């Protein structure tokens, strides 16, 4: 019986793409299959396993990372589509062994249980705090006074955090602690 080389030939003929990304401050250049998602690139090729594969459909938020300062679900982001971008993963938030203020707040407020969603929650919260600081509005923002909206002096209330973090699912239900951690990090950032 002759060996079947059709799969090998098919994968050898797939188009590739030369990709350069700045991952957590380190420039990486590599050749990728054009179908590669950012999540698979991070986990399988760049040894960044902190970003988790949850639903693989963009619904749970476990794979959330920041691309050029904006939150994305990396399981739905084709790596080729972000060539030349800055990517910040959970591994890039800490300074060596020193946790970021947000990571420390998650510890202090017990913002996790099983921990599977935690990297996505923290990555999402990190970008969300930057969005809030620059004055980006959410649906809840319009429930505040007109003056607060116009001046950008919006308080990051519990309701506001829940709205802005709605795309990140926690199967354990640690939402109250996650909200407390995010609000504490916001207060530290303002202090």
Number of strands: 5
Helical content band: 25-40%
Separation of termini?
73 Å
Please name the CATH architecture of the largest domain: Orthogonal Bundle
Percent strand equals 5-15%
**Tally of individual helices:** 7
Biggest sheet statistics: 5 strands, mixed
**Oligomeric state, counting identical vs distinct chains:** single chain
Task: Encode the helix/strand succession as letters.
Answer: HEEHEEEHHHHH
* CATH domain class name of the largest domain: Mainly Alpha
Biggest sheet strand line-up: 2-1-5-3-4
Radius of gyration, in angstroms, nearest whole number: 19 Å
Low-confidence stretches: none
Average pLDDT figure: 90
- Overall, the morphology is globular
Q: Estimate nothing, just give the exact number of structural domains.
A: 2
Which fold name is given in CATH as the topology of the largest domain?
Answer: DNA polymerase, domain 1
CATH superfamily of the largest domain: [2Fe-2S]-binding domain
The class by helix and strand makeup works out as: alpha+beta
Protein name: Xanthine dehydrogenase YagT iron-sulfur-binding subunit
Domain 2Fe-2S ferredoxin-type: 17-93
InterPro entries: 2Fe-2S-bd (IPR002888), 2Fe-2S-bd_dom_sf (IPR036884), 2Fe-2S_ferredoxin-like_sf (IPR036010), 2Fe-2S_ferredoxin-type (IPR001041), 2Fe2S_fd_BS (IPR006058), Aldehyde_Oxdr_Iron-Sulfur (IPR052914), Beta-grasp_dom_sf (IPR012675)
Keywords: 2Fe-2S, Iron, Iron-sulfur, Metal-binding, Oxidoreductase
């Amino acid at each position: 019986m002759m060996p079947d080389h059709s799969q090998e030939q098919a994968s050898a003929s797939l188009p590739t793409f030369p990709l350069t990304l700045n991952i957590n401050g380190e420039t990486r250049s590599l050749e990728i299959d054009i179908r590669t998602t950012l999540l698979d690139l991070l986990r399988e090729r760049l040894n960044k396993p902190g970003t988790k594969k949850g639903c693989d459909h963009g619904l749970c938020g476990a794979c959330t990372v920041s691309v050029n300062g904006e939150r994305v679900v990396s399981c739905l982001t084709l790596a080729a589509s972000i060539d030349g971008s800055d990517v910040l993963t959970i591994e890039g938030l800490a300074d060596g062994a020193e946790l970021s203020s947000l990571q420390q707040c998650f510890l202090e407020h017990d913002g996790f249980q099983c921990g599977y969603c935690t990297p996505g929650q923290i990555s999402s919260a990190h970008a969300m705090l930057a969005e809030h600081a620059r004055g980006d509005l959410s649906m809840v923002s319009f429930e505040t006074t007109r003056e607060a909206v116009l001046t950008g002096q919006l308080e990051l209330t519990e309701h506001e955090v829940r709205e802005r973090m709605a795309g990140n699912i926690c199967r354990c239900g640690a939402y109250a602690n996650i909200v407390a951690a995010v609000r504490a990090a916001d207060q530290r950032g303002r202090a």
